[in-house]
Amino acid sequence: MHTDRETTRIVRSWLEEGATALPDRVLDAVLDQVPATPQRRAAWPTWRSTELNNVVKVLIAAAAVVAVAFVGLSFLPRQDGVGSPSQSPSPTRTPSTPPSASPGVAVGNLQPGTYRIGDPSVTTVPYTFTVPAGWTGRGDGDISRNAEQSDEVHFTPAIVTHVYTDACKSEGTLTPVGPTVDDLVRALVDQVGSEVSTPVDVTLGGYPAKRIDVSIPAELDVATCRHPGELIQIWADVDEQGFFAIPANPPGLASPLYIADVAGTRVVMFGGGGPDASASDLAELQAVLDSITFEP
Asked: Is the entire prediction scored with pTM above 0.90?
C-alpha cells in the first residue's frame, strides 16, 4: 500500500503529465478527504466492491482524482511481486509470463491460461484460476476485464482482520473479527450503517462458502458519514491504511462477498460487474470463478 505522501506525489505527477492539471487547492482538498489509500479502486454495483477499489468515483477533473479518492480497496496497485501463470492443461493454452512477474500475483495483460496467486499478503490460501483472452491482473490480486470502466467485471481476494461496527460513522469503530466464516458474517450482519443480505450457502473452489451482498441502506443520509456523501467503510486493516468501502454514487450499489472455509482457513473474495457489464462478460466472470482451485 502507499502512504499518504506517496499517494500525493503519484497523483500530482500523474495529473501534471496529462493535458490538464488541477489547481493545488483542488487537489489538496481531494486528498484531504482520503485518510489512507484504499485497497482498491472505485466500486461498481451489483456485486462489486469498492476498493476505494470499490468505491465511488467523484466527478473532479473528469474522473482523474476519482480513482485515488474513491476506492473500496486499492486503486493504486501494491508493489508486491507478480507470479507467472502455471502450465495450462492444454498445450494450446500455455500462457506467457505476464509483465514484471515475481512469485505470488498475476499482473498485467494475461494471456489465456491458468494462473496461480499465492502471495500471503494478498490471500490466506493459494489458488489457481483460468481466464480467456482479455483479462488483466493487478498487484493486489484483482483480476478484471474492462478494468476501471463502467462495464468492468472482476474478482479480488481480501484478508479481513477488522470490521467497522458502524460503516457510516466509522471513525473509532474498527474492531477485530474472529477467524471463522461465521465470525465475519456475524460482524457484517451486525454492522450499523450498511445493509447486508441474508447469507446464502454457496461453494467457492469446491469448498463451503457464504455469499452476502453489502450495500448502503436507502434511508441512510451519507452526508452524515465519516466521508460525507462519498462512501461507507466496511472493513480495514488495523492501521486503516487500506479499507473496503461502498460508494454512495451511483446509488444502489451492492457488493457481493464470498466467504469460504478452505480446510479451516477463511478465504474472502469480492467481485462482480459494473452498471454496464454485459451478460456475456458476467457469464465469463462466473466461469472464471468456477475455475478457482484452492491449495490448502
From this structure: no
